[in-house]
């Protein structure tokens, strides 16, 4: 008898094509207007049915994460089991390829991938995942869809949109400096700079507070700006990852070849 093939789910890297902070909310979070887009690459989650729930983390960023109950993969699996009243377990392996605390939704993408994987493996109603996603993190509902969307409220009120970037080559670059999302929001100056219309004319209002905490973000943005063919250059989320879209793969790959060795990068495509 052959071994059962493990189920696999990709946790696509998220970028915010634009992110406007509109104000502080009574719950301590902030009202946003953002356009989410997703890459074709990300972390990789595999699962095999088992009696109990377990998590093993592998990959280049495994050492930065605890594999205990605080991990968002664990929390998502436990929450879904409770919500759907599932008695089964699962042996999960997370291949952690995205840097941690980097503005590309790694933990949120992992939580969302866990919900998708276990909804299929445990054969439960997908509405359970939709219901529990917001409590796992403001970005988890968007990551559950992993399709381009406009996000409002805390980022969790979603409407599917087409920002016109599907299939475009993208380069993500991070100066290998983790950045706390809460610390970046806390550094926002409280000035509402206006609504988000067309994302190309928009901005990322978290760039200024993030750059105060990690000045190397400025170096990454300056470097992306001078790469031939780079367009739509911006920081994602609360940073420190920045991105550029490229007209074609050849110019994107030329930038990859020129990327400083001490920075992390991911060459991908937008979904
Ligand atoms: C900034 C964004 C933009 O997409 O992305 P990342 O930088 O995390 O990738 C998100 O809003 C992050 O969403 P997520 O990472 O799920 O945040 P959460 O776990 O819900 O919140 C972490 C902390 O960030 C702050 N926070 C988050 C969302 C929000 N709308 N307002 C906030 O002020 C709060 O201090 C909160 O305690
Ligand atoms: N599976 C996970 N992947 C990444 N971070 C996780 C995970 N589980 C818990 N965390 C915690 O969530 C925090 C935010 O990480 P992450 O989601 O990668 O940030 P961001 O949303 O800025 O990209 C980190 O401090 C990390 O300790």
Automatic annotation (TrEMBL):
Its EC number is 2.7.1.148. Keywords: ATP-binding, Isoprene biosynthesis, Kinase, Nucleotide-binding, Transferase. ATP binds at residues 99-109. It catalyses: 4-CDP-2-C-methyl-D-erythritol + ATP = 4-CDP-2-C-methyl-D-erythritol 2-phosphate + ADP + H(+). It comes from the Bacteria. Gene3D superfamilies: 3.30.230.10, GHMP kinase, C-terminal domain (3.30.70.890). Residues 71-145 form the GHMP kinase N-terminal domain. Residues 202-261 form the GHMP kinase C-terminal domain. The active site is at residues 14, 139. One of its GO terms (molecular function) is kinase activity. Pathway: Isoprenoid biosynthesis; isopentenyl diphosphate biosynthesis via DXP pathway; isopentenyl diphosphate from 1-deoxy-D-xylulose 5-phosphate: step 3/6. It is an enzyme of class 2 (transferase). The keyword Cytoplasm does not apply. The keyword Chaperone does not apply. Belongs to the GHMP kinase family. IspE subfamily. Catalyzes the phosphorylation of the position 2 hydroxy group of 4-diphosphocytidyl-2C-methyl-D-erythritol. This is 4-diphosphocytidyl-2-C-methyl-D-erythritol kinase. It comes from Sphingomonas swuensis.
